[in-house]
């Protein structure tokens, strides 16, 4: 059994440990590890730095990541570009990251994400503008949200010093975006087209909006995300990085 402890962003701006219960599978940020951050402070606009240097993301300005994989619907290609653009959200200057997802070579999703790193090295996620595209036309913006709008709050996309068992909310816009994650390993070996890596960080991800769905991501320090095992059986691998 897993002891579940939920974190919320309180009025003081703290990710606060609020309640614990027993569960057989995660449905909220969970941990039994001593190193789990019981509270992670949202530092306010003055507590953020320019750019993103957390080695598990490797989000240098101008860098582009290319991922490929197979899904039940066909061959998927994801191109992630760390742009030179910024967007000010809740008084914080965020980095604009552009994700484009192609299915069998045709653009299927076009998303803008907003990230910022605090002075401690935690990378916060401030929202996304997501568009689902069919036959060249936008058919849905489901999943779009922005921190500070309609009660949405920033989440943590990567901790400064992740430890096994650490759990955190990645995003929160009620009923729209409620992804959460837990660090499950710090010593995985992974081979993808881009290369072979040891000492990789592995995270488990889930959302209460899709009960039972689970996904895993693998990160190599100094490289970033190298492998994603999707919530519906997808396997997406890092193919290239260009600057």
Describe this structure in words.
- The chain is globular, with a radius of gyration of 17 Å.
- About 0% of the residues lie in helices and about 60% in strands.
- The strands form two sheets. It has a 16-stranded antiparallel β-sheet that branches. Strands 1-2-3 form a three-stranded antiparallel β-sheet, with no helix packed on it.
- The N and C termini lie far apart (about 45 Å).
- The chain contains no helices and 19 strands.
**Number of H- or I-type helical stretches:** 0
Q: From the 3D structure, determine the CATH topology.
A: YmcC-like fold
- Spans of at least 5 consecutive residues whose pLDDT stays below 50 are 1-36
Structural class by SSE content: mainly beta
Helicity, as a percent range: under 10%
Helix and strand layout, with pairings?
Layout (H helix, E strand, L loop, with lengths): L1 E8 L4 E10 L15 E3 L6 E2 L14 E8 L2 E16 L2 E12 L2 E13 L4 E12 L2 E4 L4 E2 L6 E6 L8 E3 L1 E2 L6 E14 L2 E13 L7 E6 L3 E6 L5 E8 L1
Antiparallel strand pairs: 1-2, 2-3, 4-8, 5-6, 5-19, 6-7, 7-8, 8-9, 9-10, 9-11, 9-12, 12-14, 13-15, 15-16, 16-17, 17-18, 18-19
Produce a short descriptive summary.
This protein is mostly beta strands and 243 residues long.
């Amino acid at each position: 059994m897993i002891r579940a402890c939920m974190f919320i962003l309180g009025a003081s701006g703290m990710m606060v440990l609020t309640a614990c219960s027993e569960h057989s599978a995660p449905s909220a940020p969970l941990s039994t590890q001593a190193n789990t951050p019981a509270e992670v402070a949202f530092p306010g606009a003055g507590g953020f730095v320019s750019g993103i240097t957390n080695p598990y993301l490797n989000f240098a300005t101008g860098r582009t990541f290319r991922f490929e994989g197979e899904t039940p619907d066909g061959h998927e290609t994801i191109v992630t570009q760390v742009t030179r653009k910024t967007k000010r959200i809740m008084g914080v200057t965020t980095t604009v990251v552009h994700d484009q997802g192609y299915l069998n070579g045709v653009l299927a999703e076009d998303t803008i994400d907003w990230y910022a790193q605090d002075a401690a090295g935690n990378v916060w996620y401030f929202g996304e503008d997501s568009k689902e595209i069919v036959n060249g036309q936008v058919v849905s913006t489901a999943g779009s949200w922005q921190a500070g709008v309609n009660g949405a709050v920033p989440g943590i996309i990567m901790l400064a010093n992740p430890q096994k068992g650490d759990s955190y909310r990645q995003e929160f816009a009620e009923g729209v975006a409620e992804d959460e994650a837990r660090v499950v390993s710090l010593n995985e070996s992974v081979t993808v087209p881009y290369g072979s890596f040891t000492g990789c960080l592995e995270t488990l991800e889930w959302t209460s909006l899709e009960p039972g769905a689970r996904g895993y991501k693998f990160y190599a320090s100094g490289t970033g995300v190298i492998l994603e095992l999707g919530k519906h059986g997808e396997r997406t691998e890092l193919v290239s990085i260009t600057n």
